[in-house]
Amino acid sequence: MRMAVMDKGSAEPGRSLVRDVSLPALVLHNRALEHNIRWMQAFVTHSGAQLAPHGKTSMVPALFHRQLEEGAWGITLATAVQTRAAYAHGVRRVLMANQLVGAPNMAIIAEMLADSSFDFHCMVDHPDNVAALGEFFAARGLRLNVMIEYGVTGGRCGCRTEQEVLALADAIKAQPALALTGIEGYEGVIHGDRAIDDIKAFAASLVRLAVELQERNAFALDRPIVTASGSAWYDLIAEAFDALAVRQHFLSVLRPGCYVVHDHGIYKAAQCGVLDRRADLGEGLLPAMEVWAHVQSMPEPGFAVVALGKRDIAYDAGLPNPLRRYRAGELPASGDDVSACKVTALMDQHAFMTVAPGCELKVGDIISFGSSHPCLTFDKWRSGCLVDDELNVIESFSAFF
Q1: What is the chain's Cα-based Rg?
Q2: Of 174, 95, 183, which Cα lies nearest the Cα of 127?
Q3: Listed residue (162, 261, 264) closest to 207, CA to CA
Q4: Which domain holds residue 339?
Q5: Which residues lie closer than 8 Å to 9 by C-beta, 6 or more apart?
Q6: Domain final residue pick, 256, 278, 307
Q7: Is the domain of 316 the same as that of 352?
Q8: Is 52 a member of any domain?
């Protein structure tokens, strides 16, 4: 699948990242990207599950299509507007891992449901939302697929008790315009010293509820969906879903999203945990995303200002990590390790960076940066560069936030 071309000019395919591209720039490394897509698809398939990657990570339809072509069952999204963007670019199966609230958002989904090829499922966790959805879609002669969201106390959305789940299933059954197609949970809000045990208990409870709902004939599908999994604990969810009762009677769906480009921070650490728990997995995910920027000023000894700021790279889960230094225009591009340098502060368009002893920087040099939490780097860009091992632009891609 070719990446969607957006910007001609500085990021035109065939140009060199160190010589021809206007910086700062969002950069994806093709080799690592392809590795990650194949790796996660293989992991999920071997676990007996299906993969619906969370597309809100990138909102890059070209990445959605790469994932679908590798075998993904569908795409997960968070909002009606994100769903519309994916649909406009050919995605025809969406799990909206969120509640559909508000008539304008319902209208967006209703427009797409007029296409019989569009398979859409959203979450519900309260009788008021069930009633509003039932009324809205009945008035339009449409039937909406809904899944019950099961949550944890102090977490995000979702019914807090198993009793609430069962009562909500009854409320859904009373709405002819709604079809209960599965049950969903999100374990990423579970933290603390006992996180692993608590996540396993939550997943077991989710499976137990799915089985009970099926025994009550609550689902509209012969093989209803049971789904969970963010990008940190997907191995634990896969283990819970690999039980015989789930394999035989349910379609289990995992929804990690950040794996597609991985990161140099929180998900790098989470991946180490996965590999510690699952030594059989061998090599894990690879960081595929960087942001490149010029050294803009060297106003004091040991101090550099880089043309990179809060508007260019995520900083919610840690400041950017300097990776390598390249000489602008120098081919072949052979970068030097500058990981001993440290970003100490970010402004809107500037990064303050201490220069490690022995690291010789000059104005105009190029620094590649890694970041933590790729979602909040992607959403700062409308286009970026896909590059090969020689740092030549293969294609440009577009994001739709």
Answers
A1: 23
A2: 174
A3: 162
A4: 1-31+267-401
A5: none
A6: 256
A7: yes
A8: no
Assigned token pair, 351? 């990064």
pTM score, two decimals?
0.95
Looking at the structure, tell me whether residues 159 and 245 fall in a common domain: yes
From 200, 227, 256, the end of a domain falls on 256
DSSP state of 80: H
In a domain, 139, yes or no: yes
Residues 232 and 273 in one domain: no
- CB-based contacts of 341: which residues, under 8 Å, 6+ apart? 304, 322, 353, 354, 355, 356, 359, 367
Percent helix, strand and coil across the chain, each to the nearest 5? 35, 25, 40
Residues 113 and 246 in one domain: yes
* 249 and 107 within one domain: yes
Query: Which residues, at least 6 apart from 21, have a Cβ–Cβ distance to it below 8 Å?
Result: 10, 11, 15, 292, 385, 393
Give me the half-sphere count of Cα atoms (radius 13 Å) on the Cβ side of residue 45: 10
Same domain, 247 and 292: no
Q: What is the amino acid identity at position 102?
A: G
Closest listed residue to residue 299, CA positions, set 368, 358, 366, 361: 361
- Give the Cβ contact number of residue 257 at 10 Å: 25
The DSSP annotation for 158-204 comes to SBSSHHHHHHHHHHHHT-TTEEEEEEEE-GGG--STTHHHHHHHHHH
What CATH number corresponds to the domain at position 338?
Answer: 2.40.37.20
Please give the full DSSP string across 143-157, using - where no structure is assigned.
Answer: -EEEEEEE--TTSSS
Per-residue pLDDT of the chain (401 residues; tens, 9 = 90+): 344 433 433 467 889 999 999 999 999 999 999 999 999 999 999 999 999 999 999 999 999 999 999 999 999 999 999 999 999 999 999 999 999 999 999 999 999 999 999 999 999 999 999 999 999 999 999 999 999 999 999 999 999 999 999 999 999 999 999 999 999 999 999 999 999 999 999 999 999 999 999 999 999 999 999 999 999 999 999 999 998 778 889 999 999 999 999 999 999 999 999 999 998 998 899 999 999 999 999 999 999 999 999 999 999 999 999 999 999 999 989 999 999 999 999 999 999 999 999 999 999 999 999 999 999 999 999 999 999 999 999 999 999 98
